[in-house]
Design goal:
The structure holds 2 protein chains of 2 kinds. Chain A is an alpha/beta fold. Helix content of chain A is about 40%, strand content about 15%. The longest helix of chain A has 18 residues. Chain A starts with a strand and ends with a strand. The N and C termini of chain B lie far apart (about 60 Å). Classes of the chains: A alpha/beta, B alpha+beta.
Chain lengths: ~600, ~120
Amino acid sequence: MYRSHVLVCGGTGCTSSGSLEIIDEMKKEIDSLGLTKEIAVIKTGCHGLCALGPIILVYPEGVFYSRVAVTDVKEIVNEHLLKGRIVKRLVYDETIEGDKLKPLTETDFYKRQHRIVLRNCGVINPEVIEEYIGTGGYEALGKVVTEMTPEDVIQVISDSGLRGRGGGGFPTGLKWKLAAGNDADQKYVCCNADEGDPGAFMDRSVLEGDPHVLLEAMAIAGYAIGASQGYIYVRAEYPIAIERLEIAIDQAREYGLLGKDIFGSGFDFDLGLRLGAGAFVCGEETALMTSIEGNRGEPRPRPPFPAEKGLFQKPTILNNVETYANVPRIILKGAEWFASMGTEKAKGTKVFALGGKIKNTGLVEIPMGTTLREVIEDIGGGVPNGKKFKAAQTGGPSGGCIPFEHFDIPMDYDNLISIGSMMGSGGLIVMDEDNCMVDIAKFFLQFTVDESCGKCTPCRVGTKRMYEILDKITKGQGTIEDLDKLEALCYYIKDNSLCGLGQTAPNPVLSTLRYFRDEYMAHIVDKRCPAGVCKDLLQFVIDPEKCVGCTLCARNCPVSAITGAVKEAHVIDQDKCVKCGVCYEKCKFNAISKK
Amino acid sequence: MKSLEELKAIREKMQGQIGFRSDSSTGTRVIVGMATCGIASGARPVLTTLVEEVAKKKLENIQITQTGCIGLCQFEPIVEILEPGKEKVTYVKMNSEKAKEVVERHLVRGQVISEYTIEKYIK
């Protein structure tokens, strides 16, 4: 029995800022004081507050240390773990009020959250199956195979109102029912863990922090539809997630929770991992299954839908990681419990990955229908540096932006669609007044051009043409006709592309055109970028009245574009200038301005 | 594993460990003085005994933590017990044997062992 548990975050965010070295150092220090038998050091998954990593939580006190360096470890061990004196300078400032500690659950970031999917992330050691079982893990699977019929399981999932968390929002219970209704000698359960949206990392956190929940849910799904084999399709760029999934699968097999005759019920189920090479299109269901089959990841027309002819031409269900992560809880706590959260048409919670111009970047899980204002101002801590919120981008390259006028919209599938965005897998990128919306649209189009698989012409050629027009506009060479052409192209590509990638690729352009047409017009008519981002429309000039000739700008200019004698006004040669902005930052007399 | 009973057994074994990792301010807090004075007069075995006994008796909702110097160095090792809605009880000059008794009598049965409390020594 340990008197104290030290939880160190081993998610990707904290690992990249050095948490594994912290764990080694911590164990060494604890050992040198002879405390090994009293204090457990546990590597957990992500806590969500990635901006503050590396993160250490010490229980039973519940002290939350943030931004810990390896050099701080000795002090924490000597002061806190040995003598019981909390190292206040490292405690997250939101959890300390005067001399009193405030529980983490009462901080702004956590108090509005409702953790179902992420409930074990940051709490258990994902590499130890007993810890998962200790939180009630695999009980839902046990209940399902010993007490319920497959029809009962599907009914509970249907009644709960769970919808796909990967973006489309298709009712999960219905998906399972369709696959269960198709007879075949073999069926498959697949998991889409090919999270490809820029800025989204919800699924990665679940895989890294609580891999067994996915295994359990997929076995439940297998029982419900009559499948004995499952595949997890995970991207190769998630090495930590892959490693933990492999460990989890091995442990589950060892315990007989995967394999033959689970819980003596006669039900067999096993799982395999398939690694994707990081193609965005493989997040599309038919492309994903083609890739699992060992072929080039390209989509195919639907119907037939996967429930009828999916993987290897057999009935298949495909759900995303977050969708599965809800399933065991729904089985244990009941459909009504789940349906009591959220809005009328969207039940339960949604995990969002907050990124961009926001104070608390990280992962948050909130009930469906929470407003954007609550997420950004209350949980996210607002836009930093006193800048003004301009828009939030949801749904990545398939989604759109939510402008300030919709700040109070309750976020669920239908509301976001109605304002031209989409839930997507949950990436939420905040933009402030310094972001140029044309440039953002161009960024996403660049992404879809790169990621288009090239099978169908509207997507392959159309997105390229769109990108070229956007590029022209950001260079100040766009015309009003270009804007009309761009818009027509958007609708053409939406209507004619084969798969979701092409059908949604124009969304970032359509939604920025809808809410920020004036910015496009400024680029085209006034040849001006209001946010000061597009370099070709920008000029740095020195005000001769204010310039004192200190030579600081000239000395720092990387291309020697600034000339002038000492104590005389300097001049920027616009032909040489690369608009890096160094002179603007260096000038101590505010003599340089952006035009 | 072939039965739900086996799963339940693992769960029960692990539950104490996992349940520990939550922010609960409702339970009883047992605080051991672990400054230099406390450690020098033997607070460490007192602390480990408390942890072991509480685990052995499967007592729930009890938090055992350390604190710094309380200022009564001559009475160390000191153990304070804070129960919600009750007055703080301070046990002084503790050792492993007394700690076991405190768990058995105070934490399990709810009786304050007055002969070990500070009042007894100050009078």
